[in-house]
TrEMBL record:
<keyword id="KW-0813">Transport</keyword>
<dbReference type="InterPro" id="IPR039426">
    <property type="entry name" value="TonB-dep_rcpt-like"/>
</dbReference>
<keyword id="KW-1134">Transmembrane beta strand</keyword>
<dbReference type="GO" id="GO:0009279">
    <property type="term" value="C:cell outer membrane"/>
</dbReference>
<keyword id="KW-0812">Transmembrane</keyword>
<comment type="similarity">
    <text>Belongs to the TonB-dependent receptor family.</text>
</comment>
<keyword id="KW-0998">Cell outer membrane</keyword>
<keyword id="KW-0675">Receptor</keyword>
<dbReference type="InterPro" id="IPR037066">
    <property type="entry name" value="Plug_dom_sf"/>
</dbReference>
<keyword id="KW-0472">Membrane</keyword>
<protein>
    <submittedName>
        <fullName>TonB-dependent receptor plug domain-containing protein</fullName>
    </submittedName>
</protein>
Length: 823
């Protein structure tokens, strides 16, 4: 009988061990798949935290692999949106990420309403998850001409102020977080305490823990951010509550009810090492339990317990771990997650050290300053990467080292639901035990992770990939028959006219759908799309062109707006906001006065030589002509009373061009191609055009015409007069062809940087900028390991903040904040 029992236990043990090993392999397989299909993260640095109507928002967007924070090999496109208080997108930029970043800007229109706007950034691939994964930041925008709007917005901003001891007047909202997840009878457990309501968060609250017999077990005290901790060993059949006394009245809060059986996961973070204790009160002990730790999905530690111990302790050195949130999870023998704990790792070996030196240590007003930037690791080796810099007036623009930055976002908030307030506080001082202790309490009271184990282990993640990564632009649509009014397979051809002419052909499928791309081009591109029922032929028949072309929209509808996880700006104090608004009012008055002076100056007649006027005019027209210089040109500005002349009469005036009846030829070439605004047209399409519609006409032949396809016989390009609408209203395209302007990726405008040394306009205009300088693209490469940034100071004697953010090629987030004074 004893042998049978022993044999039975052995079989159970072997079966359980096999199941646990299979589960261990499943976990590792799924984590490996998570890394292969890694999430993406986006961060946006803006030059300031708040703005006024009429200003520009300057920003730089960073896109990285969400696991190692290196360059992502998935998406190349980021959408950045500015959303008003009514959740309407007032401006949207589509940016192409060449490496890890792309610069952009928003022009705050004068007809916009003031309010708390939201800046949101994401990739199409990020839409497979909730909007909590998007980068979202609140941007207050004031109208300096409306006092009421200024006060309304200030009331909604969370102003940070020096810590003050305020007497507790009302019942605080307190939450309790047992370490690992649960209180277990007989097992010592830490319980995190968090004051939820903002009114009482920075007030020191003293209380006690009592059991169901009203016996005091221990006391507690909350610290900064409303955080505290207490330790207790729950007894069987007892419950516990916290008691806080307010104005002589005891207010009680129940703690989570202890479980009779379960597991406990206790971790002590000593900076250079972690002490991990696992315990249980189950009769089978920890046998076949599985403990693992991962950082953003990368496995960093695992332990499969084979003995039936009730507890064990592990010391884990952190010098091999990366900076960021580390997740510890304990699974029982059936593969169920029973305990979890977050720990933040701050490894000094991962730090990027940025040094900033100036050639002008004591700059004065309107002075020239050069800044030299070097970025190195702990060993003194140069680091490569991308950075952006904002220099702002501290008296008007509050910049606190406690607020969100790229380091705190990538390493903290982007891996947690809900915002950690003033996250920069935890990184202001290196190796500060107090800050490390408070950060550990923050981890103890944050119970959410980027993925849920049951979803990761038992769902097919590939099925949830609805939105694919985007690497370029696509021009797509469908072809339909003009006769049958249904989809039809047809030959299609796309032609880009901007830059270097490009042409491609393909046939739409049986459903009439076609797609060209991916393309990468900036701004806009004149585009022609053609379709034929059969093949494209030199001698076209009317029936072959009986095809309609229907284009798809550039991109689908934007995701639904969700403000739940929005990052609100934390300001130093209201005084700086008041200074900013007053300075913005002064800037508004200066700009209004300058525009009035410019208007008066325009009325002054300046006499110039005929030759210089003509040269300037030609330069103007050459800029409009994307193909460069023509072989010959007629400028309608030089001819009077020719508005009623028909286009053939005007073309006949071109040197080297002959017009006989309805036939055009170029001497030494042949019958030319005709283009209107760089779009090919038939002569019959423009036959009714007159001089009133034309600004200038160019003739190109030989090498000059090579910009255009099929240009062996030369090209005549007609440019419409600005404001003329002949092209839109009068040209009736033949069937099977449409022309349009393709929208490419947004190219950021250049930040206006006054030149106080040689600039004429700057010499006569007061300079009181709140953003002194914006440098969105600072590239550090293996060839250029340092960078140099130059700018001029303004007319304001003040202290200025230099904020530099970025990411190294090795995935280290970089944040630097320093100041200088203008005397």
């Amino acid at each position: 009988m004893i042998k049978k029992i022993t044999l039975g236990l052995t079989v159970i043990f072997l079966l359980s061990f096999t199941l646990t090993n299979n589960f261990r392999e499943l976990v590792q397989e799924k984590l490996s798949g998570y890394i292969d299909n890694y999430p993406e993260k986006v961060y946006v640095q803006t030059d300031k935290p708040y703005y006024t109507i009429g200003e520009d928002i300057w920003f730089n967007t960073y896109l990285v692999n969400g696991v190692n924070h290196k360059r992502t090999n998935k998406s190349k496109i980021v959408y950045v949106e500015l959303i008003n208080e009514k959740d309407s997108i007032v401006s949207k930029k589509q940016l192409y990420i060449f490496n890890t970043s792309a610069a952009g800007d928003f022009e705050i229109k004068k007809n916009w309403n003031p309010g708390n706007y939201m800046l949101r950034a994401y990739t199409n691939y990020m839409r497979n998850n909730e909007a909590d994964y998007f980068f979202q930041k609140q941007i207050p925008i004031w109208d300096v001409t409306k006092t009421d709007s200024i006060n309304d917005i200030i009331e909604t901003i969370e102003l940070t102020s020096p810590e003050t001891q305020i007497e507790l007047q009302e019942k605080p909202d307190i939450q309790f977080f047992p370490e690992g997840g649960y209180l277990i009878d007989g097992l010592a457990s830490k319980v995190g305490i968090k004051i939820k309501d903002k009114l009482n968060r920075n007030i020191t609250i003293n209380g006690v823990i009592k059991d169901s017999d009203n016996k005091t077990i221990s006391s507690f005290k909350t610290f900064q951010f409303g955080l505290g901790i207490v330790t207790l060993i729950p007894e069987t059949n007892k419950t516990y509550y916290a008691a806080v006394t307010i104005n002589g009245e005891e207010i009680t809060y129940p703690l989570p009810k202890p479980l009779p059986n379960g597991y406990n996961l206790n971790i002590v973070n000593n900076g250079d090492h972690l002490v991990v204790k696992v315990a249980t009160n189950n009769s089978l002990g920890l046998q076949n339990s599985y403990l693992l730790a991962h950082q953003r999905g990368a496995l960093v530690f695992e332990k499969l317990e084979t003995d039936a111990n009730n507890s064990y302790i592990i010391k884990l050195n952190t010098n091999t771990l990366s900076d960021g949130v580390t997740h510890f999870t304990l699974f029982n023998s059936t593969g169920k997650p029973v305990c979890e704990r977050l720990v933040y790792i701050d490894n000094p070996e991962d730090d990027a050290i940025l040094s900033l030196t100036s050639d002008n240590e004591t700059p004065t007003r309107r002075d020239h300053v050069n800044l030299n930037i070097d970025l190195k690791d702990k060993e003194g080796n140069a680091l490569t990467g991308n950075l952006s810099m904002a220099i702002t007036d501290i008296d008007a623009v509050g910049h606190s080292s406690k607020t969100e930055n790229i380091k705190t976002y990538l390493l903290l908030n982007s891996d947690l639901r809900g915002q950690i307030e003033n996250p920069g506080y935890f990184f202001e001082k290196e190796n500060d035990p107090k800050r490390r202790y408070l950060l550990d309490l923050t981890m103890l009271t944050h119970g959410w992770r980027r993925f849920i184990w049951n979803e990761l282990l038992y769902q097919n993640n590939e099925d949830s990939i609805t939105f694919k990564p985007e690497i370029g632009l696509y021009i797509s649509g469908r072809t339909t028959s003009k006769r049958k009014k249904g989809n039809i397979s047809a030959s299609t051809r796309i032609t880009f006219m901007g830059g270097f002419p490009y042409q491609e052909k393909k046939r739409s499928d049986a459903n009439g759908t076609f797609s060209y791309g991916p393309f990468v081009f900036m701004d806009t591109m004149p585009t022609i799309l053609e379709a034929r029922i059969k093949k494209f032929q030199k001698e076209e028949t009317k029936n072959n062109r009986l095809v309609d072309i229907h284009l798809d929209k550039n991109y689908g509808p934007s995701p639904k707006v969700n403000r739940k996880s929005i990052l609100k700006p934390n300001m130093d104090d209201q005084t700086k906001i008041t200074n900013f608004i007053q300075q913005s009012k002064d800037i508004f008055k200066i700009n209004e006065g300058f525009l009035e002076e410019a208007r008066l100056l325009d009325e002054v007649v300046v006499t110039a030589t005929l030759k210089s006027q003509k040269e300037k005019r030609n330069e103007e027209l050459n800029e409009k002509a994307v193909y460069g210089y023509p072989s010959n040109r007629i400028d309608m500005q030089e001819y009077e009373n020719m508005e009623t002349f028909f286009i053939l009469d005007l073309i006949g005036m071109l040197p080297g061009v002959n017009v006989v009846n309805d036939t055009i030829s170029i001497r030494g070439a042949g019958t030319p191609s005709i283009y209107l605004n760089n779009i090919p047209v038939e002569l019959t399409d423009i036959s009714t055009m007159t001089g009133a519609d034309v600004e200038f006409i160019d003739v190109l032949k030989g090498v000059d015409a090579s910009y255009f396809p099929n240009s062996a016989n030369g090209v005549i390009v007609i440019h419409q007069r600005e404001g003329a609408d002949f092209f839109a209203k009068n040209i009736k395209r033949k069937p099977g062809i449409i022309d349009f302007t393709s929208t490419g990726f947004y190219t950021a405008r250049e930040f206006y940087a006054p030149d106080h040394m040689y600039g004429f306009e700057e010499a006569s205009r007061e300079d009181i900028r709140t953003t002194l300088h914006w440098e969105p693209k600072i590239n550090l490469t293996s060839v250029d390991t340092s960078a140099r940034v130059s700018f001029f100071t303004s007319d304001i004697r003040s202290n200025y903040a230099i904020k530099i953010e970025g990411i190294t090629d090795s995935g280290i987030p970089v944040y630097h904040l320093s100041t200088f004074e203008v005397e």
